[in-house]
Design brief:
The structure holds two protein chains of two kinds. Chain A is mainly α. In chain A, 64% of the residues lie in helices and 6% in strands. Chain A is built from three helices and two strands. Chain B has two domains: 284 residues, Beta-galactosidase, Chain A, domain 5, CATH 2.70.98; 155 residues, no CATH class. Chain B has 13 helices and 23 strands. Classes of the chains: A mainly alpha, B alpha+beta.
Chain lengths: 69, 592
């Protein structure tokens, strides 16, 4: 499951993300964050963390350096 | 490095074009809903052999059918022995030979988009090229009553207010009756009864079946489930097919190879579906034996065989079955579902994304009733969605204006970490944080628009509401690809453009141009590789999107135009940004 989710994030980075205007408010980017979170905390917790990060990733959310805890 | 990236981007784009269809199937397999994994059906013994009669009382299945000579539709319907069906939405007839409903025309739907094309002929008699019909019969004493028996009718016309009862009596003194009643839409209720006037008790099994060919005029797109379909124990299943295509995730039972497929559990309904049409039997009692069967000559059957009942002398046994034969209007199907037929709305294979597709369709329907044209309804939908996204863009421009103040520091960072992209990125992020500005809107606003687009794509394929619905000018069907083609100068040159890569219509070109405009007005800073990529993206997407439904392209074009308008408006609000953007353009032009 973890592998599949990482693959999805990786696929996003290689595909759609490259064709869209840069939009990252955070560093690392959401997809990079997701990959790191999944590797460090597993599918369930890591996935939840990645989801929460996505939910923060809008003009009224935070920005800046935000590494995986 | 940059060149390599560009090459990679180009290769990826080509892969995108070629892999689109495969990708759709990969990510959205049609059978995603069902979790059932029923056992393989029995091998094809007797499945294709002709006329195997049911063997013993309480027989497990109805056996095969004798082959029937081909016949054309006019001859088949002109043979007499028919009772007319006439309701507000349906015309047709009941065939007194075999107690079959084998002639149903849908008054509200035309065969093609042409104004003079006839109504959709959903049910046609056995032997006709697109044969599709329902039969109601009995197995008595282990013998399936012949399908060529002639029945007597007690009325001349089946209407919502006048039911018709067919009857016949066999040599053993058993009187069979089938009472047909029809509602104002597409539901027929058949009440089958047997009265035993003989001396000895007899074991009787009423049955109902739908038999049809898999040959259709217009094949359904691969994202739509077509073919055998059923719901059992309140779970709709799409895992039985005439013949299984390629699919990665979904389990698929190939009826042609397996011969038969038995439905486990209590069947809610069972039948066949096309992209827009649906015929199903709704068993009136539990524990009926339900089976799909493959017959020779691309013929398939869905059988509902009830449990045997012993009818004593002078006694009567009764069994009701409902038959749906009509269009898959989601509102109507949901109404039948609310009326107690579990999962009936799932006859439309919405897929796992139903919770978003149905609200989109609901909104489109209501917008349509407001403006009276589905094309304008789609435009309104776009306006609503872009309207919801407007604050995001506004906020972006506001913080971009604030950014102007920190521009010198930004320049400095870019210069200092020219060779270390990652470090540069980090430093910029730090700058944003220190100065409390950030011009980027984040990925969520963008991600939110993907489901809307995907839902609209599915709705345009699945919903009959948009079938044959015009927009303006040359677009007569929003659910079909743009009918005009550039290659033959919109029909001025006398040749048909082959479907596929080069079949681009004006809508697709509009899409390319409007997208190019939005990229040009895009305020975010991009590196040269991305610049180059953005220069080719619109034209690649033009080819990719051309074969999709006109309504989907209409949505995208409108969305692009609104983006351009929004950008222009915001630039006028922040004139200093406009000047900066123009300067950047000039610089770019000078460089390139």
């Amino acid at each position: 499951m973890k592998r599949i989710l990482i693959l999805v994030a990786r696929g996003w980075q290689l595909g759609p993300s490259r064709t869209l205007p840069p939009s990252c408010r955070y560093y690392p980017s959401c997809s990079q964050y997701a990959i790191e979170a999944l590797e460090k905390h597993g599918a369930l917790k890591g996935g939840w963390m990645a989801f929460k990060r996505l939910m923060r990733c809008h003009p009224w959310g935070g920005h800046g350096h935000d590494p995986v805890p | 490095m940059d060149n390599r990236n560009l090459l990679l981007a180009f290769v990826l784009s080509v892969v995108l074009i070629l892999g689109w269809e495969a990708g759709l199937r990969y990510f959205y397999p049609e059978a995603a809903i069902t979790t059932q994994t029923p056992a393989k059906g029995k091998p094809a013994d007797g499945a294709t052999s002709a006329a195997a009669p049911a063997a013993a009382p309480g027989a497990g299945n109805l056996g095969g059918d004798a082959a029937v000579r081909p016949v054309d539709l006019k001859t088949a319907l002109g043979g007499g022995n028919r009772v007319v069906i006439d309701t507000p939405r349906v015309t047709g007839s009941i065939n007194l030979v075999g107690a079959r409903i084998d002639d149903i025309e849908l008054k509200d739907y035309r065969e093609t988009v042409k104004k003079d094309s006839g109504p959709v002929h959903l049910f046609t008699p056995e032997g006709t090229p697109h044969q599709n019909f329902a039969e109601f019969g009995f197995v008595a004493g282990g013998q399936r009553q012949p399908s060529n028996a002639l029945w007597q009718a007690d009325g001349a016309k089946l209407t919502p207010s006048t039911p018709v009862t067919l009857s016949r009596t066999d040599a053993n003194g058993l009187t069979y009756r089938v009472k047909f009643a029809i509602d104002a839409d597409y539901m027929i209720t058949a009440t089958q009864s047997v009265t035993n006037a003989g001396a000895a008790p007899t074991v009787v099994q009423p049955f109902a079946l739908i038999k049809r060919t898999s040959v259709v005029e217009n094949a359904a797109p691969s994202v739509v489930h077509s073919g055998p379909i059923y719901s059992s124990d309140a779970v709709a299943a799409y895992d039985v097919s005439y013949a299984c295509g390629w699919s990665l995730f979904s389990s698929c039972h190939d009826l042609t190879t397996d011969g038969t497929y038995s439905v486990k559990g209590n069947t809610d309904w069972v039948g066949f579906t096309d992209q827009y049409w649906f015929s199903a039997l709704v068993p009136g009692s539990k524990n009926a034996g339900v089976e799909f069967r493959s017959l020779s000559g691309k013929l398939y059957r869905a059988d509902v065989l009830y449990q045997p009942v012993t009818v004593g002398a002078g006694q009567t046994a009764t069994q009701t079955t409902r038959l749906f034969a009509g269009a898959k209007e989601s509102v109507l199907l949901d109404r039948y579902e609310d009326g107690g037929i579990a999962q009936f709305g799932a006859a439309i294979s919405w897929g796992w994304f139903w919770f978003f597709e149905k609200p989109i369709l609901w909104l489109l329907r209501h917008l349509n009733s407001l403006v009276g044209n589905f094309g304008f309804a789609i435009i309104l939908l776009t306006v609503i969605i872009r309207g919801l996204m407007f604050p995001v863009a506004q906020k972006g421009f506001a913080s971009m204006a604030a950014m102007k103040a920190v521009q010198p520091k930004m320049k400095e960072i870019q210069e200092r970490f020219k060779d270390d992209k990652q470090r540069q990125q980090q430093e910029i992020m730090k700058l944003y944080k220190d100065e409390k500005v950030n011009p980027l809107s984040g990925c969520l606003p963008m991600l939110i628009q993907i489901p809307v687009f995907f839902a609209l794509y599915k709705v345009l394929v699945l919903a009959i509401e948009m079938r044959h619905k015009p927009f303006i000018l040359w677009i007569h069907d929003l659910s079909a690809p743009d009918p005009a083609h550039i290659l033959n100068l919109f029909g001025l040159l006398d040749f048909t453009v082959p479907a596929g890569f080069l079949a681009i219509g004006p809508l697709a070109v509009l899409l390319g141009i409007t997208m190019w405009l939005t990229f040009r007005l895009n305020p975010s800073a991009m590196d040269p590789v991305q610049q180059q990529m953005f220069a080719i993206m619109p034209w690649i997407l033009m080819f990719v999107m051309a074969p999709f439904a006109a309504g989907l392209l209409l949505y995208w074009v409108t969305s692009n135009l609104l983006t351009v308008a929004q950008q222009s408006y915001l630039y006028s609000k922040h004139p200093q940004l406009k000047a900066a953007n123009a300067a950047a353009e000039k610089q770019k032009a000078a460089k390139g």
